[in-house]
Amino acid sequence: MNIIIYSKIKTLRNLSFFIGISLLFYNCAKSKAAEEPSMEKKVYVAEKNEVVTVVLKNESFQKELISNGKIVAAQKNSIQFEVSDKLEHLYVKNGDFVHKGQVLANLNPFKYQQRVARAEIELKKAKFQFEDMLVGRGIFTTRRDSIPRDIYEMVASRSGYDVALLEFKTAQFELKSTKIIAPFSGKVANMESRVYENVSAGKDFMTLIDDGFFEVEFHMIESEMSDVALNSRVQMIPFALGKTYSGHISSINPLIDKNGTILVKAVVKNDGKLTEGMNVKVRIQKEIKGQLVVPKSAVVLRDNQEVLFKVINGRAYWTYVKTTLENSSSYSVIAHPDKSSSSLAPGDTIIVSGNLNLAHDSEVVVSPNEKN
User: 15 in the Ramachandran plot: left (φ > 0), alpha (ψ -120 to 50) or beta?
Assistant: First the structure.
């Protein structure tokens, strides 16, 4: 009997233990669930098509003609000695700026000085003989314009005076030619000779470049001839510098070459950074009045055709257009002549930004940063 009662008490204790454990797990799970935030439903917000617009108006369009060219010196000359001898002095080096009339180099002048002295002696002898022959003919002057031409030529030839005078002038020229004097102001280039080296007559000794102004040579196609004229303004951008220079057209070759192009030259002032042989981009602008002008970003493709989006009462409607002129930033446009529904007029509000993914009849919001 006691054994049975003990067994029931033990069973009740085990049952109470399991019930306590279960309640403990239940309370923990309930507490954890209370700590986790509740999941909220996402609210769908309609996407706003924010755009930037401009008001279309008649204005001047800057038509651009683009070409590539090369910078060449407006004045560039190879300088040579007229006589041969050893180089005695060299006063400049490559890259130096020199002034007109400045002595640049000279040869050893000794033998040419001797030739002048000898020629001067021979000239004096011939002149005495020339004067004696004139006196024998009753002529007491040596002024050429006071002597009959036939008598002067005969006496000068027989006395050797004309030959002696020629030799003297030649000797003077050769002595003078032992020096190189700058014929104009500019920079020295391509000089390779050194002092005490022998220099040959007629061989290129140096190049002198007037770099105060440069010419830019470029080609334009035949159909663009009517858009250029002498003294038209041009812009030149050297590829190596990325800086824009202004100039004007100085010459237009009237002949069309085998490639269907014409040679055009423009003059540009050097600021000290331009160098002979630089490659440049040339841009010529011509003003065309009375055009409907829009930024390039305003024109997009729909159905493989060019369209503009107009804003009417807060909605975007496309209209087919044709671009008639183009420059680096803008188009000149007209309503497409083959589309009866196309219309374009001054005063229309045109979308210039935010139009890439727009559909016809989309609702739009004009940005406060509207361009005017």
Answer: alpha
| Superfamily (CATH) of domain 65-73+208-287 | Efflux pump adaptor protein, beta barrel domain (2.40.30.170)
Per residue in 8-46, pLDDT tens? 444 545 545 545 555 554 554 445 444 444 445 454 445
Kindly report the number of other CB atoms within 10 A of residue 151's CB atom: 13
User: Which CATH fold would you assign to the domain 83-206?
Assistant: OB fold (Dihydrolipoamide Acetyltransferase, E2P) (2.40.50)
Would you say residue 303 has pLDDT above 60?
yes
Q: Where exactly does CATH 2.40.50.100 map onto the chain?
A: 83-206
- Residue 234 near residue 71 (C-beta atoms within 8 A): no
Element (H, E) at 216: strand 204-221
The tokens describing 271, both together, are 């600021």
Rounded CA separation 138/150 (Å): 15
Alpha-carbon gap, residue 164 to 171, rounded angstroms: 11
State pLDDT tens for residues 37-78: 444 545 444 567 889 999 999 999 988 888 999 999 888 899
For residue 153 the two structure tokens come to 């030529």
The residue type of 351 is: I
Per-residue tokens: 167: 């030799």
- Taking the alpha carbons at both ends of the chain, their separation in whole angstroms is 107
Instruction: Determine how many CB atoms are found less than 10 A away from the CB of residue 183.
Output: 13
Phi, psi of 181 (to 5 degrees): -115, 130
- Please give the angle made by the CA atoms of 139, 141 and 144, to the nearest 5 degrees: 105
Contacts of 181 (CB under 8 A, 6+ apart): 101, 102, 103, 104
Whole-number Cα distances in Å, 118 to 122, 130, 201, 361? 6, 18, 22, 103
List C-alpha distances in Å: 113 to 168, 171, 199: 11, 8, 18
Those residues with Cβ within 8 angstroms of residue 335's Cβ, 6 or more apart along the chain or in another chain: 319, 320, 321, 322, 342, 343, 344
